Amino acid sequence: TFSANEGEQVHAVAAGRILYSGYFKGYGMVIAIDHGDNYITLYGYNQTLLQKVGTLVQQGQAIALAGKSGGQKESRLYFELNHKGKAQNPLNWLSKKPW
User: Fold this and answer.
1) How far apart, in whole angstroms, are the C-alpha atoms of residue 83 and residue 80?
2) Cα end-to-end span (Å), the chain
């Protein structure tokens, strides 16, 4: 998880299509983006979701507002990267992808 100010914009790390936008137990308000090539990113603990399922988003586009949904005591951003259904270290991925 990453520190985030409540209400701060959450941006897509890469272009893709919104796969999920809604509440997910334990993670609060979640947005999931399908980036193709079996890569999916998830952004959780948001207070507000700005995009709907099926919407195409660009890298850097605002997709949510950070918050503390899902039972968090302070505002945070949950960020997860999956490749072929397996969690990856997002820091390694973000530093290598040509976004």
Assistant:
1) 10
2) 21
